[in-house]
From TrEMBL:
It comes from Nesterenkonia halotolerans. The keyword Plastid does not apply. This is Dehydrogenase. InterPro entries: CoA-bd, Gfo/Idh/MocA-like_OxRdtase_N, Gfo/Idh/MocA_Oxidoreductase, GFO_IDH_MocA-like_dom, NAD(P)-bd_dom_sf. Gene3D superfamilies: Dihydrodipicolinate Reductase, domain 2 (3.30.360.10), NAD(P)-binding Rossmann-like Domain (3.40.50.720). It comes from the Bacteria. PANTHER family: D-GLUCOSIDE 3-DEHYDROGENASE, UDP-N-ACETYL-2-AMINO-2-DEOXY-D-GLUCURONATE OXIDASE. Pfam families: GFO_IDH_MocA, GFO_IDH_MocA_C3. Residues 6-108 form the CoA-binding domain. The keyword NAD applies.
Length: 372
């Protein structure tokens, strides 16, 4: 945690949305950084929920909308914890009010919305960044550095599995499983974390060939998808995302010329979740193999991402998981849906800033679960 002194005022934060992700993840994270940031207000359309959460977490300001909170409190940081359909408007309101924005996943519903938010950013801040916390652990940091330095040889093959389970009742919440309110199915709302980590490690992707199906849940969107991805480096990855899998796991595997690197967890990892396995020819140099794993243990977490975001705010620099970095992950998912619905590979170089998969994630003439 970055040290402070009596001459460094705490930054002011406001929260939009008083649901589970605010109380489970963001408010504990903010409390962990209370020497650097204070929560001055919270807003939600449900006044009873606002009062309950504000009382529990001793938040003085209680509001019915993002704009009310912004007008009354002028926060330095606006944290958006609403359902996805409300992300764009709240982010734009925050940026226009001079607040930096930290928004839960998925960032917004479409690439067009993402670009509309980005257009409100100003050089030196405020910027909008997004919750992609899995790229912030020491395992990901170490592996990304190894890829950049070719420590393990060229990347060749990767697996990216988000095999989770969400019961039928999960979709009783009206905004879930609907294109207009969630923007997509598990690729958009669940697998996005592992997909972002895959891209953080392997970099630019070049082509996607995908399938997506509605196999069991009563939703408009898919409940399963699978994609084969070619990267600019030449590496090829398989990406599988499901909410139908009773034994839940988040698993990424990277096969390099000289080693296999794996991380297996569910909703967050630390160093114990990672393994580095040398190829037979590399195992002879044990000193090198021992140095492959991280020397510090920083779990993937909202806490670590917020720490780096606060550093960026103080330095007036663009934070990680924003700008083109944040767009790349959303662009990947748009291409996945485009390939699945058109039955054709999608090259990144051919993606457009107009048309069906720019202004949406879905062709309305394509109905999931009706294909034969």
């Amino acid at each position: 945690m970055k040290p402070t002194n009596s001459f460094t005022p705490r930054l002011k934060a406001g929260l939009i949305g008083a649901g589970g992700i605010a109380t489970i993840a963001h408010l504990p994270t903010l409390k962990a950084h209370q020497d650097r940031v204070e929560v001055v207000g919270i807003a939600d359309v449900d006044p009873d929920r606002v009062g309950q959460v504000a009382d529990e977490w001793e938040i003085p300001g209680r509001y019915a909308s993002a704009q009310e909170l912004l007008d009354a409190e002028s926060p330095d940081l606006l944290i958006i914890c609403t359902p996805p359909s409300a992300h764009k408007d709240a982010a734009i309101q925050g940026l226009r009010a001079g607040a930096w924005v930290w928004c839960e996943k998925p960032p917004v519903l479409t690439l067009a919305e993402y670009d509309a938010v980005a257009a409100e950013e100003v050089e030196g801040g405020p910027y909008a960044s997004y919750v992609y916390q899995h790229r912030f652990g020491s395992g990901a940091k170490t592996l990304k550095k190894q890829v950049a330095e070719a420590t393990l040889g060229r990347p060749l093959v990767a697996l990216c599995n988000t095999l989770w389970y969400r019961p039928h009742a999960y979709y009783d919440v009206p905004w879930r499983g609907r294109w207009a309110t969630e923007g997509g199915g598990p690729a958009m709302g669940h697998g996005i974390h592992q997909i972002d980590l895959l891209l953080e490690v392997l970099g630019e992707w070049a082509e996607i060939t995908a399938v997506a199906e509605k196999l069991d849940r009563d939703v408009e969107t898919e409940d399963f998808s699978s994609a084969i991805v070619r990267f600019a480096s030449g590496a090829i990855a398989t990406v599988v995302t499901s909410v139908l899998s009773p034994r839940e796991v988040s698993y990424l595997r990277f096969d390099f010329q000289d080693a296999t690197v794996e991380v297996e967890h569910l909703y967050g990892y630390d160093n114990s979740s990672w393994t580095w396995t040398p190829a037979p020819h590399a195992a002879e140099d044990l000193a090198t193999v021992d140095s492959w794993s991280p020397q510090e243990n920083v779990p993937s977490s909202h806490r670590q991402q917020l720490s780096e975001l606060l550093d960026a705010m103080e330095a007036k620099e663009r934070p990680r998981a924003s700008g083109e970095e944040g767009r790349r992950t959303l662009e990947f998912i748009a291409a996945l849906y485009q390939s699945a619905e058109t039955g054709q590979p999608v090259r990144r170089s051919e993606m457009r800033q107009d048309g069906t998969y720019y202004t949406g994630m879905h062709d309305e003439s394509y109905i999931y679960g009706k294909q034969s």
